Amino acid sequence: MITAKPGKTPIQVLHEYGMKTKNIPVYECERSDMQIHVPTFTFRVTVGDITCTGEGTSKKLAKHRAAEAAINILKANASICFAVPDPLMPDPSKQPKNQLNPIGSLQELAIHHGWRLPEYTLSQEGGPAHKREYTTICKLESFMETGKGASKKQAKRNAAEKFLAKFSNISPENHISLTNVVGHSLGCTWHSLRNSPGEKINLLKRSLLSIPNTNYIQLLSEIAKEQGFNITYLDIEELSANGQYQCLAELSTSPITVCHGSGISCSNAQSDAAHNALQYLKIIAERK
């Protein structure tokens, strides 16, 4: 008699059966259909002479259903004494969102569409010891999103979730490419800057960028909002050779722009980086 304790998942139940009969279940992914809204996975499980398949919106759920199908066959087989209460099946609709894996989902999506894998970079770490905050940049091809969290892992998840949220707005029948998914919402090109009718970018072309007390960070933010790119300030821990704070301003233009700044404080360094970024944008926008 092969028995299993109640409250176990189909995978656990089938694994116990395989251990006792020396037929360890083998799972293989037969198909993965990475549609943006409803991804579908199909897994095949083989245990002894029995082979079953299961389908689900996640790999885990598909494996559970394959295992459950195998268990049902074992129960129906009169030559096998298989006493086990109904195994617990995970209900994806009842799982809290924090149990999902946006990092894995984004990676699978990139593989499916032939994109380069997402790259994660820890850009900032701050806050008191009891309330740390981490900032991570996720780059996918020439685009990026920034995530924040109380841990490095949470910051990565947040950045991945932002990318997935962008993709979820695209209808499933559309052909997915990085150009039509993120388009101008995450970046802009030098060509679009030179030909933009935007008020802020044209004001920049006429500006001397030398007026005292100008808020360069705000000015850069206004241009970014108008032209559709993001700004990330990366504070550098090491002081410069002359003892000043340092900062990098990264713009999600295409190609990505990075400008250095320095000053007697972190805020001054950020302002200097924004000023240098504005000067660079001005040069690019004025070119014919």
Automatic annotation (TrEMBL):
Q: Which InterPro entries match?
A: dsRBD_dom, PRKRA_DSRM_1, PRKRA_DSRM_2, PRKRA_DSRM_3, RLC_Component
GO CC annotation, single = nucleus
Q: Span of the secretion signal?
A: none
Keywords, sorted A to Z: Cytoplasm, Kinase, Repeat, RNA-binding, RNA-mediated gene silencing, Transferase
| Chief subcellular location | cytoplasm
Could you tell me which CDD domains the record lists for this protein?
A: DSRM_PRKRA_rpt1, DSRM_PRKRA_rpt2, DSRM_PRKRA_rpt3
Residue stretches making up the DRBM domain: 9-76, 101-169, 215-283
> Which GO molecular function annotations are given, in alphabetical order?
double-stranded RNA binding; kinase activity; siRNA binding
Kinase: present as a keyword of the record? Answer: yes
Write down the Pfam families for this protein, in alphabetical order: dsrm
Q: Where in the cell is it found?
A: Cytoplasm, Perinuclear region
Output the Gene3D superfamilies linked to this UniProt entry: 3.30.160.20
One GO BP on record is:
siRNA processing
Q: Which family does it belong to?
A: Belongs to the PRKRA family.
PANTHER family the UniProt entry points to: INTERFERON-INDUCIBLE DOUBLE-STRANDED RNA-DEPENDENT PROTEIN KINASE ACTIVATOR A, LOQUACIOUS, ISOFORM B
Q: Output this protein's name.
A: Interferon-inducible double-stranded RNA-dependent protein kinase activator A
Please tell me the species this chain comes from.
Myotis myotis
Organism lineage: Eukaryota, Metazoa, Chordata, Craniata, Vertebrata
